[in-house]
Specification:
The chain is mainly alpha-helical. The protein contains six helices and two strands. It is globular, with a radius of gyration of 15 Å.
Length: about 130
C-alpha cells in the first residue's frame, strides 16, 4: 500500500501536517506558550493566531484543540493513543468545528455558529471552534 492509498481523501497539506509540537518547525515562542498552557491546565477561552500563509496558524490551532481534549497529555503534547486523539486523527470528532471564515460570511452563518456554541460538547470535555 503506497502513501496515496493510505488516505485518498486528504490533501497533501493535511497528509503532512504536524500532529504534535515537536513536529512543528519554527514558532518556538508560540509552541512554548501553548505547550505550557496545556501542561499546567491553564488554557485560555480564546486564542487569536495571526500571520502570513503557511506559518502554522491552523496547525497550532488543531494541535491545541486535540491537546485540550486528550486524556493522556504528555508534556503538553497529545498522546495519539487515547480515544479522543484517535477520533481527532480519523476525523470522527464532533466537538472540534473548523469553519472557513472567507466563505461563511453571511448573517445566517454567524447565527448558526452562535446557536451551536450554546450547546454542551457531545463527546469531549471541551468544544473547540477553529475559524480559519
Amino acid at each position: 500500500m503506497g502513501i496515496w492509498d493510505a488516505s485518498p481523501r486528504l490533501s497533501l497539506a493535511n497528509l503532512y501536517r504536524p500532529h504534535d509540537w515537536e513536529s512543528v518547525v519554527g514558532q518556538e515562542y508560540t509552541k512554548t506558550i501553548l505547550r505550557n498552557a496545556l501542561s499546567s491546565d491553564r488554557v485560555g477561552s480564546a486564542y487569536l493566531f495571526h500571520g502570513m500563509r503557511g506559518t502554522g496558524k491552523t496547525t497550532s490551532a488543531r494541535i491545541l484543540a486535540q491537546g485540550v481534549n486528550c486524556l493522556n497529555l504528555r508534556e503538553g503534547n497529545p498522546c495519539h493513543t487515547c480515544v479522543n486523539c484517535y477520533a481527532c486523527e480519523n476525523g470522527t470528532f464532533l466537538d472540534i468545528i473548523e469553519s472557513d471564515a472567507a466563505s461563511n460570511t453571511g448573517v445566517d452563518n454567524i447565527r448558526e455558529l452562535i446557536e451551536t456554541a450554546m450547546f454542551q460538547p457531545n463527546q469531549w470535555k471541551y468544544k473547540v471552534y477553529i475559524i480559519d
